[in-house]
């Protein structure tokens, strides 16, 4: 197979360019003012999160600022967080994976079908579900990397195909999934289900792998410029294929966690996770390490959004305002990050000009 | 060569995937209904009945006469029949109910929840309305939220209790009764639902609606030459109940009526129904469309108009939502609509909720009647009035009397 690499970057780009937005060290020995724009770009969403918490705590202290509400907020987003973390792996190499919710759906349905209907023990059922994720990833990689089909198109197709397959395997709700899985996933430590700690652990793993291992760095190189990455000797296509397989595998993992959370399976409930997962990944790319799809940014994005929605609900403001908050937050965060990045470029160019000019 | 290798790889991957799925499907359940448009040839009532008996001429005319009688009764304004014994709601003042709806942008949901809120407010109960956007994850979170906020009761709409069993258990453990809406026909919760944490149900008699739709078609056609097409959604319990009632009624009163049943899941109405209608209306024998819900007609009427078939086919449906009532009043293709009084149901939900909060036995049936609207009575209805006025009953006053507030 030839290592053909697109010359043009057509894949997903984080909302701000990484180099311009990343805070830099002092240059040329000149004393620098604190890089407020850089801090705002990196931690703006955390400040916004804190502001949201503060506002709702003041408005509804007895309802919002309570341990029980904290547990509800943290404990309810595990599946979405895992799915979004899986997504950032393929997004990092510049590939969209619209089939990730389909991979989750097939995995969820397989756990229910194999365990409840076919009578398999829970461990083999989970392994089969995870294997289905790998197969989906292999199919996506074959289409995108092998045949050169655009990932957006290829995974749109495989995603729809997988939703259909999920219904074909088991079209109805299947309850009675083994308590061995359900009890583990729902087991509470300090009031939070184990699924939260799994999602947290997975955030740490993705963060560590991407931040501290060569493979993690390669993902960004490939995503930023596949041609240069190839000229540098990186196995670009293997990395792209691996990233797509990893995303589908993580999607299948999310399906297993979902099965444990629900104690049931259904082929029609996974699709609603697709757009929130993308929203979290893109919103996350504006935070912590702006300009890069990153694990902690995604973590913060997921919980920032659910905190806001919960606060609005507790105020009795349900309905259209939730969508306005959700969509508005995404647009605002991305726009502000872009502005911060532009300001940094402007400021640096001024520093460079003044530093280079004769004194 | 490289391309060949890629293709080989792709084919191999597809084969593995197909094999895996094939194995799963081969051992699959008997109910492997596919999404989209499954035509149930065997579900056609004509075929079902042909296995049983050949109807005689007199029994056929008896069937039509009975259908006409049932339709005539359903056309009249309905009366309020107390669904249960009077209750005292004085002890419920200051309590809070969590009302988990699906989409507040949908008129049905908005009317329902605003009426429940109004009714509960009469007893001094606060109703917190939140929406789950048809997402199980949202519904799960909202039930947990209600538990965390120490709600005194939870109302949840259109989620299969199997899928929210986990949070329902939490509500049960916290002693919070859950009232589950629209899971199917009126009934007491099954032992399984009780174990899951469902304290009471509140729903329309969907099979009655299906029966009435069949009655109208039989009466309108005189039981002759009926070739109907019904669209349903097997992912909605209410839809299955409508279908069951309709099939039973056709089998009972007009076995020779031919009706095809085609499945379109809820999420696929917008994409599948228009194309399906196009192909069905192209069949010159089809003369009745009987979609389970009039919301489906939104996607059907343009195709029927485009085919120039408005004279040949008639559309009979259920729900009596305003746009379709207007279409009927204007002489459009919709000729009958079985009305399910939504505002009334909002009050009935409040009634059932307060009974359960009082620690009383839940009602088996909240007792909401249906009303048939067609060309014979649509002229009498003032569609500029709120939906609550179309049924001819001041149900709000009746409920207040039942609760000792008047």
Q: Percent of residues of chain A in helical segments? A: over 70%
Let me know the CATH homologous superfamily of the largest domain in chain B: Response regulator
Query: Please, how many helices of chain B?
Result: 14
Elements of chain A, N to C (H/E): HHHHHHHEHEEHHHHEHHH
Instruction: Tell me the β content of chain A.
Output: under 5%
Note poorly predicted spans of chain A: 1-9, 19-30
Mean pLDDT of chain B: 85
Beta-strand residue percentage of chain B: 5-15%
Structure annotation, total helices of chain A: 15
Write structural notes for this entry:
Chain A has 359 residues and is mostly helical. Chain A folds into two domains: 14-19 and 36-65 and 286-345, no CATH class; 78-269, no CATH class. Chain A is 70% helix and 2% strand. The longest helix of chain A is centred in the C-terminal third of the chain and has 37 residues, at 320-356. The N and C termini of chain A lie far apart (58 Å). Mean pLDDT of chain A is 86; it is low at 1-9 and 19-30. Chain B has helices at 2-26, 45-50, 57-75, 107-122, 136-148, 165-173, 191-196, 206-221, 237-253, 269-281, 301-306, 322-329, 342-357, 395-402, and strands at residues 38-40, 96-101, 126-131, 153-157, 178-181, 198-202, 227-232, 258-263, 288-289, 314-319, 334-339, 371-374. Chain B has two domains: 38-76 and 206-339, Response regulator (Rossmann fold); 90-204 and 342-369 and 391-402, Response regulator (Rossmann fold, 3-Layer(aba) Sandwich), CATH 3.40.50. Chain B is globular. Chains A and B meet through helix 3, helix 5, helix 6, helix 7 and strand 1 of A and helix 1, strand 3 and helix 5 of B.
